[in-house]
Amino acid sequence: MLFAFGSGASDFNTEDLIPDMILVIIAAIILYLVFFLPTLGVSVRRLHDTNHTGWWVLIDLLIPYLGWMAFLFFTLKDSTPGENEYGPNPKGNMATVVTPSNPLV
Fold first, then answer.
1. Model pTM?
2. Per-residue model confidence as pLDDT tens digits over 41-61
3. Smaller CB count within 10 Å for the chain: N or C?
4. Per-residue 3-state assignment (H helix, E strand, C coil) for the chain
């Protein structure tokens, strides 16, 4: 592959790219936080709907392959009927809020 680039490859200066790389790394960290924190909150809320503690999110991070399968199973389960340790069932609340006698205003 070096032969394909010829002698022009030796003129390339990587020191010119360092400021650009730093900006890209900072942007990636900001985007990671922008997407990670809401995802974490939604995941913990969903686990609470299924009557599991939010710490189960860590199983996804700590146990490769098996962890994300268990986490997927917990999040795909139906919500706990009625009220659980973490509050009322959100599906039950939506049915009583959106009715003709009690419209959303």
1. 0.61
2. 999 998 888 888 889 888 888
3. C
4. CHHHHHHHHHHCCHHHHHHHHHHHHHHHHHHHHHHHHHHHHHHHHHHHHCCCCHHHHHHHHHCCCHHHHHHHHHHHCCCCCCCECCECCHHHHHHHHCECCECCC
